[in-house]
Write a structure and sequence with these properties.
mainly alpha; Four Helix Bundle (Hemerythrin (Met), subunit A); 10 helices; about 0% strand
């Protein structure tokens, strides 16, 4: 196992995604509002999708491919990576279906609730599967350089959304995790994050209607 491969960012991302699934469940099961109107106009749904898309694209482009090359001749391990990719596809399909409900005047809240439940079960199951099986495999097989490249690709996909997604990632993290995440930032980004991005994010009630840009 490579001690040079740190999983702080990976687990912080997973924890943040789980946190948003809890918000999604709260919104789609409440009886005092139309959940379609909330998701269609709240920043939280958009932010969640952007973070998940950046994370999964980075895995598909820079995590699974080098692992596949290292695992040639090991069919059971290769099969695990195929399952990881298939789970990504299934999750993306459900998200597209939810977006379809949000723009379909004939779709009711019951259908949205069913899809939200499918997303919660599918993504939560995928995160657990990845943590128990795929990440230990990555730590055994990947070099520190390959892991750094994965992190760089994920940062590239976050790109211009960093002022929003970095505070989102830090939201709810314990102090040691937040310190480790902030320490990874270059000095200009660290300064901007602590001075501007985090305060701006704190003002955003992201799961309230009408907050989407």
């Amino acid at each position: 196992m490579s001690d040079a491969i740190g999983l702080t960012v990976m687990y912080a991302m997973h924890d943040a995604l789980r946190r948003e699934l809890a918000h999604l469940d709260r919104i789609t099961t409440a009886a005092d509002h139309d959940p379609r109107q909330v998701l269609a106009t709240a920043a939280g749904w958009t932010v969640f999708k952007k973070a998940l898309h950046a994370h999964h694209r980075a895995e598909d482009e820079a995590l699974w491919p080098p692992l596949r090359r290292k695992l040639t001749g090991r069919p059971s391990d290769l099969a695990l990576l195929e399952v990881m990719a298939a789970e990504h596809t299934a999750i993306a399909t459900v998200i597209r279906a939810i977006d379809g409900v949000l723009t379909d005047p004939g779709a009711g809240p019951l259908r949205l609730g069913q899809l939200a439940d499918a997303l919660t079960r599918g993504l939560a199951g995928h995160l657990e599967h990845e943590e128990k099986a795929a990440l230990p495999l990555a730590r055994r097989e990947l070099t520190a350089e390959q892991w750094v490249r994965f992190g760089r690709v994920q940062a590239e996909h976050i790109g211009r959304e960093a002022p929003l997604l970095l505070p989102w990632l830090l939201d709810g993290a314990d102090a040691p995790t937040a310190e480790r995440l902030l320490a990874l930032l270059p000095a200009p980004s660290y300064g901007a994050c602590t001075a501007r991005w985090i305060p701006a994010y704190a003002e955003l009630d992201r799961w309230s209607p009408g907050t989407a840009a």
